[in-house]
């Protein structure tokens, strides 16, 4: 009986720990203003994906972000700029995206129509 209770407690602890890093769907402005600097601004927050010189290195899943310039985007600095996108991500619960699970670029009009989003820049 003691072992069953201990097993149940350990299982419950694992379930809680696993749900802490659950996927979140985030939609808004994806910004890449300069090399290795990436943010996602949604209705809730501005999420840091990666910053130049960051010790953490590249976020897992960055390869899922396609070349923004191949679709609807705004060029702001040479080949850099911003677009509208939805991403399935894991976050630290504060202000950083820790893992990208999926990426889908949207028409700029979608983010422009969202009154909860401020235009980048």
Description of the structure:
The chain is of the alpha+beta class. It has a single domain, classed as Beta Barrel (OB fold (Dihydrolipoamide Acetyltransferase, E2P)), CATH 2.40.50. It is 20% helix and 38% strand. The chain is built from two helices and six strands. The protein has helices at residues 2-19, 108-113, and strands spanning 24-32, 38-42, 46-50, 73-77, 80-91, 97-106. It starts with a helix and ends in an 8-residue tail after the last helix. The model is unreliable at 6-19 (pLDDT under 50).
Number of helices: 2
State Rg: 18 Å
CATH architecture tag: Beta Barrel
Helix/strand/pairing category: alpha+beta
Q: What is the C-level CATH assignment?
A: Mainly Beta
* Overall pLDDT: 85
Straight-line N-to-C gap: 61 Å
Number of domains: 1
* Percent range for β-strand residues: 35-45%
Low-confidence stretches: 6-19
Number of DSSP-assigned strands: 6
CATH topology: OB fold (Dihydrolipoamide Acetyltransferase, E2P)
Give a quick set of tags describing it.
alpha+beta, six-stranded antiparallel sheet, 2 helices, 6 strands, globular
